[in-house]
Amino acid sequence: MNRTLPPEIQDLKEFNLLPPVRTTLSNGVPLTIVNAGEQEVVRIDILFAGGRWHQSHRLQALFANRMLREGSRSFTAADIAEKLDYYGAWLELSSSSEYAYITLYSLNKYITETVAILESIIKEPVFPEKELGTVLENNVQQFLVNRSKVDFLAQRSLLCSLYGAGHPCGQLIEEADYRNINVPMLQSFYDTYYHSGNCSVFLAGKVTDEVVCCIERAFGTAPFGRYDQLLVDTHYTFETVQNKRIFTERDDAMQSGVKLGATTLTRQNPDYLKMRVLMTLFGGYFGSRLMSNIREEKGYTYGISAGIQCYPDSGMLVISTETDNEYVEPLIKEVYHEIDRLHNDLVPEDELTLVRNYMLGEMCRNYESPFSLSDAWMFIQTSHLDDSYFSRSLQALKEVSPDELRELARRYFCKETLKEVIAGKKIG
Question: How far apart, in whole angstroms, are the C-alpha atoms of residue 386 and residue 368?
């Protein structure tokens, strides 16, 4: 081996993720297993179909999930924290538009003890009033801090302008919404969505027979919760404002948050996978056209990005940055200039090759550990995609041509439909 020569670059010919083992627990709860890795550690993800899209009150889904760790009939909040710490375990709680996630990282040798705690917080939470008050107050303070940030204000305005107040994306959270949260409200959401008929389990890491048996005993031997309730499909209408520009004024802002956005295609659209390539080239990595022009050449900002945020019923194309108040107008002009270039000129092959190599590297890095593999298969389930999604992603990346990219830009980058949302100090 001649170490003075760099290794030869080789094309990624195929991209196959380790397939999961899909089965069901005795009570019918779907179980997905990604058995990989040598470390004596396992991650347990319990998913419940029920998120922001299903709540009847603002913040209801978020806090019903967040409060699970604050006490159950068997353990107080202090007990849960101390025991998990003692066993070297870690608990994460999160919720999205359509799902609630309870994630536990545990050493294999303590799996019996940690799953017992997990079972208790899922099956018998008590939503204690005192702890709820503390959690709400902490979140209110964080909200007040965020409300002073121009990027936060611009994002709120963009969502509201594209979706309207009758859509979950357009419902702006205010301080009063935190104050309105109460225990009966959380209990109602929990009773409706946290049950075995609405649940699925993912196991990743060194998944031994003992781990599977622990999960079976805790969550598979019998139905739990109000398992006979069916998830109701929810549909919302968009109410996009007519204004092209939406401005939120903050007199004390040193910079302005700038977002240009429009509703766009979803992951289920046949164009989506090739559109990802266009978005990466345009503003999805450090060497993108927006970064090269607006950061490197013009110096208007430290960073600018573009991407598609996906929701259950739509996608939202967003170009996002912060800049000095006096550079807002020239910055927006340069964004439109880059869109015009994509409309009019073919992407050079060397630039497309660079983007391909970047995206291929990201694909390899993102799915190299047992936990990231589990994330991938959870993404497939929660995004309502099929198992061929990743191989189709590779195929689209390798096959997309400069002509196709120009056609996609003309179809989906429409300057006339982009909302210009600015939060900051008004100049002139």
Answer: 20
Under CATH, to which class is 21-220 assigned? alpha beta
Q: Select from 42, 93, 85, 362 the least CA-distant residue to 215.
A: 42
Q: How far apart are CA 407 and CA 403, in angstroms?
A: 6
Residue 12 has pLDDT above 90, yes or no: no
Residue 55 backbone dihedrals phi, psi, to 5 degrees: -80, 150
- The domain spans of the chain are 21-220, 245-424
Amino acid 428: pLDDT: 63
d(CA 311, CA 417): 19
The least confident of 11-15, 90-94, 320-324 is: 11-15
The reply to whether domains 21-220 and 245-424 share a CATH topology is: yes
Q: Tell me the H-state helices in 168-208.
A: 175-179, 183-193
Burial-class residue 307 by CB neighbours within 10 Å (0-12, 13-18, 19+): middle
Domain 245-424 sits in which CATH superfamily? Metalloenzyme, LuxS/M16 peptidase-like (3.30.830.10)
Q: Per residue in 46-62, is it b (16+ CB within 10 Å) or e — as a string?
A: bbbbbbbbbbeebbbbb
